[in-house]
Amino acid sequence: MNNEQNTKGKPIWSFPWSYKEGFTFALGFLVVGFLMETVNPLHHYIPPHYPYNLIYIAILVIITIAASTLWRNKPIVVWLSSIKSSIPAIILFSFQVFLLAVIPQKQAEMPAGLHSITRTWYFALSALYLTITLGFAIAKRIYPFNFANIAFTLNHLGLWLCVVAGLLGYGDKLEVKMQVNINQLVWYGENLKGKNVELPIAIKLEKFIAEYYTPKPALMVRGVELPILPKNHPDISIDSIFSIEGVNVKVQQYYQRAYISDSGFIDARGVPFTGPAALVEVSTKNGQSAKGWIAPECASFAERYLTINADTILRLLPAEPKYYASDILLYTKSGIAEQKHRIEVNSPLKVDGWFVYQYGYDNRAGADSDFSIFLAVYDPWLNVVYAGMLMILFGTILMSFNFFKK
Amino acid sequence: MWQIFNYISVTAIILWVLSIAIVLIPKYSEGYRKVGLTTSLLGTILLVAFIAGLWITLERPPMRTMAETRLWYSLFVSIVTWIIYLKTSNKAMFVLGYIMSIVFLIVDIIHPEYQSKSLMPALQSYWFIPHVVVYMISYAILGAASISTLKAFYYYRKNNEVESDIALSMQLVYPGFAFLTWGMLLGAFWAKIAWGNYWAWDPKETWALLTWFFYLILIHIHKFLPNKKKLIITLLALSFIVLIITWMGIKYMPTGMQSVHVYGG
Q: How many CB atoms lie within 10 A of CB A362?
């Protein structure tokens, strides 16, 4: 607080520096970043990758440690490790986040890289300013070890690790999609640029499994955008009578798998590429009635709905997936041969630093899909980011302890 | 279960209005305080029972639609308000807190958004419940903090002393911020398991990060520039506005339609 009074009324750039210099730096980084982006966009360069990213991080760490031990009393080091440089840095970075929050990303191209802010000079410079001030603040508080300093270090070093490893580690990340047909062995995938790359792992698809919820009946009313669902969640495979907004529905027949015929639908249990259908009879309060089949579109027939009156139809909405997974055989360059695995949504396969996710399948064929799509991600910096996140987790727990003690 | 929602919510609202009336009886007595606390607690218990019933009948955690998250918010605000009153006997916080809970129940009476039992595979995760619950607790605590901010703002305009109101707000901001951080981290761990990346700059994530940064700035300014009262009050209010946009406003944002987080219903 005393420092604040000391710096009042002093000309800018004379030491000790204060918030004024901090915000001038922030604005400077922003302006310079925008100019650089306009003249020579950052995405013209490939993101730093191993070992260069590691070297940059080492340089950043060495400079921070050296400066804050050897020149700890120099006014610039004092300023860099103080709140007067960090608040402007946090605000500058928050401003980038604000831009990201309001400007749609990865859409139509915009001037100065505004459609892809995380790959611009101004974003990079903001992150650099943030990591520098964070680094100096950590160097000041990491020692002596006491409760407050440990909580401080966990929070700040955790954030430092997340920002540095998350941004500089990006260049080492590999992300590919693998489409694997049943009984086919695939050892390559398509990366984000649409190029096929060879992988150290190979997958053979043995079986694809998909389960669906029973499709929901819904009214579509002219002028109402969303389908109107019945209030008591009827399951039309079990409940034969229900109502939607005063329309009474009686289910006369329901087939989980039906095939279209001249007179309507026939039971097609076990036949691939068939879909659900229901024969229903409806009646409204004003005496209108109708009877007919309703069925969502599937691989072998188009949608069928029932017209109740000029403004209202009854539909059977497409069944929503309940569960899907792939039974695969895994082979790796590191020596795994024919290892059985099941890859499910929310349960990826982890092997040799790779995460393999159940990503998609043939939506029209549903459970009969004869291929499965996997997303394979390799992120060597993941554990560093996780370490940072765990530090923040424990840091905030300590922070709230400290707080509740008060 | 939603069919009986109106009866339950109206009863809870009556109990909370009654408790507000009891607490506002001008003559302070420990007896009134206890009756007020008990009455409001009954309303909260009723809401807990409804949410439990909804969970059982839907056969999935009721956290998927806006209406469902509003239920949790109403619940946690009523709990946080109850605890604050128990500890501080602050009548204004009690009144405003329960009004907030009541408003959210009324919105649900008007827009119940009945939803089906289905839960898409990506949401069938053990990370889902902690992620949403931790966020709702955080939002409830930070909501309570902004109630105290309203009071501070009013007194500030009248040139009254606002020290204690800012102190109360900030006392809530710290735990609220901790929960906000945990909610975000839980989301990141879950995203890595379900979608392949811990961070994807999805609009909801970006707005959540922006909210986090607003509270981060607030905390730093409050710690190092505690005399900038107007700035602190403004930041408290702005941060909560950003929070509300994050929670409810994403689909109205130009960036919103890209989000995987837009609620069903």
A: 17
